[in-house]
Amino acid sequence: MAGEPVISIRGLRTQFGRTVIHDGVDLDVLAGEVMGIVGASGTGKSVLMRAIIGLLTPTAGTISLFGADTAAMSRRERNAAERRYGVLFQASALFSSLTVAQNVMVPLKEHTDISPSLMAEIASYKIAMSGLPHDACAKYPSELSGGMRKRAGLARALALDPEILFLDEPTAGLDPIGAADFDNLIGDLQSTLGLTVVMVTHDLDSLYAICDRVAVLVDKHATIGTIETLAENRHPWIHDYFHGPRSRAATPSGDT
Amino acid sequence: MTAASDWMTTKRTGDGLEILLSGDWTIDHANVLDAGTAALHIDTAAACTIDAAGIGRMDTVGAWLIDRLHRRISALGVDTGFRDVRPAHDVLLRRLDAVADDPAPEPARYSALSVIAERTGRATIDALAEAKDLLNFLGLATVTAARTLVQPRRFRATAFVYHLEQVGLNALPIVGLLSFLIGVVLAYQGADQLRRFGAEIFTVNLLGISILREMAILLTAIIVAGRSGSAFAAQIGTMQVNEEVDAMRTIGLDPMEVLVLPRTFALLVAMPLLAVYADLMGLAGGALMSVATLDITFTQFTERLKDVVPIWAFWVGLIKAPVFGFVIALVGCREGLKVRGSADSVGRQTTRAVVIGIFLVIIIDAVFSIFFSTVGV
Q1: pLDDT > 70: what percent of chain B?
Q2: What is the distance between the alpha carbons of residues B122 and B191, in angstroms, rounded to a whole number?
Q3: Residue A10 CA to chain centroid, in angstroms?
Q4: Which residues of chain A lie closer than 8 angstroms to B104, CB-CB?
Q5: pLDDT digit string (tens) for A203-236?
Q6: Is A114–B34 a contact, with Cβ atoms under 8 angstroms apart?
Q7: Is A128 on the interface with B (CB under 8 A)?
Q8: Chain B contact present for A193, CB below 8 A
Q9: How far apart are CA B324 and CA B318, in angstroms?
């Protein structure tokens, strides 16, 4: 199922003042795969994601999206690339002054010239696809629960039928059942829509449920592999991560 | 210009109808596909087949439009089916068919008159509720204050001093500058008008009375409402969003005691001090302008001021100061505590704190005027 790399990172270095977050991160994300990014707090998981989606300029190294170096992109090329990915932020980042349906329509309005009636239809089915009830369309973000807000954020991220979906801790703050539902939803959408998914997470259950490969950020580098190969890794943090008490509970058989 | 026929053509086969789809059914062509599928003429046919063999790429928008077409034809009572759908497309089509729902009901439309009536009614009820709410809060604050008087140890002295610095000392530059300038403007305009009657010396009367009785205190109250009332609402509102206020309650701290009282007392004390300062600065501005335009010396100005402006003009202004301070602080804290949910709400309540604060200050000022004219000062 996995094909060409759609995201390709070489020698990435990010630095805030004198604090080095990443030093020589190499990472390829292949088309159609679900890539999990894990790491201890402060290892720069979200920073890595922000660098890929262009919210942060790396100190050194190259990031290629769809085969083109982001640093060399013109504004127009950057815009075109932005159309091809959607982002779900950790706190959903819905525009609080707009209803859920209007939130989903924002990218459509900005990037397409679709007629208003079709736009409303598109927003309505995207919201339904994200598993929200129909009456959620007219509600404001403050009227939704955390889980519903995540789904609304997902609907907005999917508004332009992106090829890559970035998720920043999608299940953080959800109850276990809600989190499992959300994992299923993402897995389901991923296979239906043929998405490539990059997911920053702390949640081992999510990793086991939907990730094809995992990038572990340790010692300012990324160690990449499937869950099985990473579980064999001898690095103390990676070993503890995949063999800690929470990990045992999350493995499918539960008796690793 | 691209025509819908590039994506869809119809063909009659006996009493059946075939719709042949081709090309990329993606969001980039959404408009032409939307119009094309909507305009597709479906006459009464026994059966209809949608042939998807020619479709290149398909995303959810394309799938939605095909599914919509399918539903439209089915709704006409025509037996409809797909042919040669690629597996990947089939998954999409099924997925979208599953979420297809009745369109959202159109929001009911009302006449402009009833909308105006509704809004007026709602605004009136809201204003009354707000007034009741504020009165409630006044009662709560009074009770808390009374309890603190009985048990002075409960009073948060550090917070009080901190807020006194914030709302009092730090407000001196702006209050002083604006009062001074208002004094200058009043003196200039007053002298200009009174000169026509040869009564320019009455500028001093005008200055003394208007600054001491009204201008200085009103100006100070408006600055403080914008500066400190809004700050109170924003500070407490942010704490409300961070659930700090809830945390306080669970620890056994009373937000009224910890947040509201120190701020209220600080403003209660700071306002009269600021008012006196504003009086002085306003008169200084007036004196400067009088000396410059009226051919009188500074000493003559002060002599005249002493002769024509009764001391109660000063007291009338000063009496209002603590009342204004109290109201501004109360409204600011109340609006802050009313913040619910998101950061959006903080901005809204802060604006309300300023608007309601200034509104009440002017209303109360008018009430004071009526009161003073009745008792004859």
Answers
A1: 97
A2: 48
A3: 20
A4: 120, 124, 134, 137-138
A5: 888 888 889 999 999 888 888 988 888 888 888 8
A6: yes
A7: yes
A8: yes
A9: 10
